[in-house]
Design brief:
The protein is mainly α. The longest helix has 34 residues. Helices cover 70% and strands 2% of the residues. Helix 10 runs antiparallel to helix 13 and helix 22 packs parallel to helix 31.
Length: 756
């Protein structure tokens, strides 16, 4: 069994593509850690904690408390000086400055010299960042310093329970609240302040709560599992293995053991790299202190150290990955296409993420929020917090339930894999019995033949149509709703559209006079209130009607802006629809771009791999046209398919836009739109839209060619999907998750460019 397990591991780990992919993902993880460690004005980087470590290393808890308190007092004083100087510099805040000085006597004088010298900057390079950092560590240190009071409060709540009439039935355990209070007191009874030594949260939570590492591990695990099972099936070895003396149970057991070893080893490697990075950038804090020494984990009910918490986190994450991908292994066994495990696994993880992210914690469905596969990866909640879930009126520890769910899911996956691998009919035979989706009719056109193979045999057309439907649903399900000011602007501009006339000039002049009158009335009312002729309440009541008029003035300013352009030569054009169509207004196009990218990757990843799977490429190279002719035609077809598919998001965005904002003036100069006033007069607005469409189609063609070339290079459907996702989609996924700089490494900035 040991040799068979090592053989199963070596099948994947010896592949250069897998090793390079693992190293690439590890490098991406380090890059994300580095980028996140830089911090900002409100979230100082990890380097600040390294300087703090040098200052407080070796201090007792009392000394830490006094030191951090002094830091807080100093930064508050320096901030007070800065606020006073800003008030005085504003020219209108002198009275407020004097009031603040009177309420805080001596503070300005005490800290003025320190402020001017800049010597208060110990950990960051700006006052805002320094205050944010010190406020954070002061709050954390105070929280840990009061841990004893926290434990006392937990016990006092139980003692108080019996004396409150609302809990009269507490002794009978009829209430979840009373039971939960009792259980909390019992779980915390063994905890003391022994071993508590405050350390800042960020250096500890950075590796433990690295969401990016979890996502990268999930991506790498897809590649490992499909390489473990699907490649073997594609080569026709599954049926042979099943028929041998030790074909079913030992083989499946070896594969599952290989999966478990992979999960433990790779999770340990990723986690260790995160810890080492945190140590290098934030200092080597003592990991042998109690977990409650970290403010973020003060409510944990476990009597463990930070190092033990790390070990438990690695074990829990490894178990979760094994459980999830044991289920996905079953999909690999039962499916005849390598895309099915990716689809099924994606659904599994996306649903888990949605439950974890969007289910309210205080709702009836809260157990679903905490008990799903993605929640099991958040070990900071399982081991670093305390929560009992209400199951039938009884409080049950989330930690116990989470670990139980992980073990149960793993067991189900193991049993399912054994059952599915025992099937007497191999997937190859099952595929052979399935009818073709469309009958093949012989012809002499190589281009038509390659198109049939690419779109029908390889199911590319079905996948592109499926993703087109997803893009349509995503675009049409978000109707634009014009605001009241936009409705005003729309009505005015639609009445002005076209050449400038005397009637249109009169309309603009009358609207301008109406707004001028409203502003003048408001000014006179303010003057009357200031002189005491009117009270503030009366003044506000009188201004209300006029303010209802001036609320639309920002929209009228857009009319005046275009009026100035029209007077120089041109015609009025209602531009809001054009701005939404070009992407200058409205929601970002990132979600549509991601669907476009994933559709192209899945539909075209077999463009070259399908020729190598059965050895057909060697035959094609010996023909008159040769492999070069086939390659050229495939690339042309892929580029054409990518360009046409890329037009789909633009088409449905146009439909969604036109429903709320009419798009007129196709031949009106685009420079009439204030955003594009720098364009030449001969460029019509319709050409602007056509250029946007052409640019997006070009991006689609480039991405399709990239996928096709990767498919010919790697000669593997699975590797093409993985590498194409890493190259084309991963930067946008990272951007969607908050790492905005990542989109610069993709085609999205070009795809979403609106020519300004």
């Amino acid at each position: 069994m040991v040799r068979l397990t090592l053989f199963e591991l070596s099948k994947v780990w010896r592949r250069r593509a897998f090793v390079l992919s693992a190293l690439a993902l590890l490098a991406v993880n380090v890059f994300i850690l580095w980028y996140s460690s830089l911090g900002g004005s409100s979230a100082p980087g990890l380097a600040a904690y390294k300087r703090l470590y040098a200052d407080i290393s070796g201090m007792s808890e009392e000394e830490k408390h006094a030191y951090v308190g002094k830091l807080r007092e100093t930064i508050d004083g320096v901030t007070f000086v800065d606020d006073i100087l800003l008030l005085r510099a504003s020219g209108i805040g002198e009275q407020f400055a004097e009031q603040e000085l009177a309420e805080n006597p001596g503070v300005f004088e005490k800290y003025y010299d320190l402020y001017t010298s800049g010597a208060y900057l110990h950990y960051t390079d700006s006052l805002a960042a320094e205050k944010a950092f010190i406020d954070r560590i002061y709050g954390e240190e105070s929280k840990v310093y009061g841990y004893g009071l926290y434990l006392q409060d937990v016990q006092e709540r139980e003692n108080l329970l019996g004396g409150i009439s609302i809990f009269a039935n507490a002794q009978n355990d009829d209430s979840f609240s009373s039971r939960n209070i009792k259980k909390s007191a019992a779980d915390h009874a063994s905890l003391t302040t022994e071993g508590i030594s405050w350390i800042p949260s960020a250096p500890i939570t950075a590796p433990a709560q690295n969401l990016w590492a979890d996502l990268l591990m999930i991506a790498l695990s897809f590649l490992f599992v499909t390489g473990l099972v699907s490649d073997e099936k594609l080569k026709g070895l599954a049926a042979v293995t099943r028929a041998t003396k030790r074909g079913v149970v030992p083989t499946v057991t070896a594969k599952l053991l290989a999966l478990l070893i992979y999960c433990v080893v790779t999770e340990t490697v990723f986690f260790t790299v995160d810890v080492l990075f945190s140590g290098v950038t934030a200092g080597w804090w003592d990991l042998n202190v109690r977990l409650q020494s970290v403010a973020a984990y003060r409510e944990s009910g476990l009597k463990i150290t930070v190092l033990e918490f790390y070990a438990l986190s690695v074990a829990a994450k490894s178990l979760t990955l094994f459980a999830a991908f044991a289920l996905i292994t079953g999909l690999c066994i039962v499916s005849g296409r390598v895309t099915v495990p990716y689809f099924g696994g994606a659904v599994l993880w996306v649903v888990s993420f949605a439950l974890w992210r969007f289910v309210p914690a205080a709702s009836v469905a809260s157990p679903a929020k905490h008990l799903n596969l993605f929640a099991l990866l958040r070990t900071e909640s399982i081991f670093g917090a305390y929560l009992n879930l209400n199951l039938g009126g009884k409080p049950v520890s989330r930690t116990v339930l989470s670990l139980g769910l992980g073990l149960a899911t793993a067991l189900i996956g193991i049993v399912l894999d054994l059952f599915l691998y025992w099937r007497p009919i191999g997937q190859t035979a099952a595929r052979a019995l399935r009818p073709r989706p469309l009958p093949f009719r012989p012809h002499a056109s190589l281009t038509r033949h390659e198109a049939y193979k690419l779109l029908i045999t390889n199911h590319g057309l079905a996948l592109l149509l499926t993703f087109s439907c997803l893009i349509a649903a995503q675009s049409l399900s978000k109707p634009y709703t014009p605001s009241s000011t936009e409705q005003y602007y729309q009505s005015v501009m639609l009445s002005l559209e076209g050449e400038l006339t005397e009637e249109k000039e009169a309309l603009i002049a009358s609207e301008k006079a109406r707004f001028d009158e409203a502003f003048e009335e408001i000014r006179q009312i303010d003057a009357a209130v200031a002189s005491g002729e009117l009270s503030e309440d009366v003044g506000d009541a009188l201004k209300a009607n006029w303010q209802a008029v001036t609320a639309f003035y920002p929209a009228f300013e857009r009319v005046l802006d275009q009026y100035e352009l029209v007077k120089a030569g041109g015609a009025f054009l209602y531009d809001t629809g054009w701005l939404y169509l070009m992407g200058a207004l409205g929601e970002a196009e990132l979600s549509g771009f991601l669907l476009l990218t994933m559709g192209l990757i899945l539909a075209l990843s077999g463009a070259g791999a399908m020729e190598f799977s059965g050895g057909a490429w060697s035959v094609l190279c010996a023909t008159k046209t040769g492999g070069g002719g086939v390659l050229r035609r495939k690339l042309i077809l892929c580029a054409l398919a990518g360009a046409i598919f890329a037009a789909v998001p633009f088409l449905f965005r146009a439909i969604s836009t036109v429903r709320a904002f009419p798009i007129h003036g196709l031949f009106t100069p685009a420079r009439m739109i204030p955003l594009y006033r720098g364009l030449p007069a001969f460029v019509p607005a319709g050409a602007l839209g056509a250029a946007k469409l052409a640019l997006q189609m070009l991006c689609g063609a480039v991405m399709a060619l990239t996928v096709a070339l990767l498919s010919f290079w790697r000669r593997s459907h699975i590797q093409t999907i993985f590498l194409a996702f890493l190259l084309l989609a991963a930067p946008c996924v990272l951007s969607a998750l908050g790492l905005k700089a990542a989109q610069s490494f993709s085609l999205y900035p070009v795809y979403a460019w609106f020519f300004t």
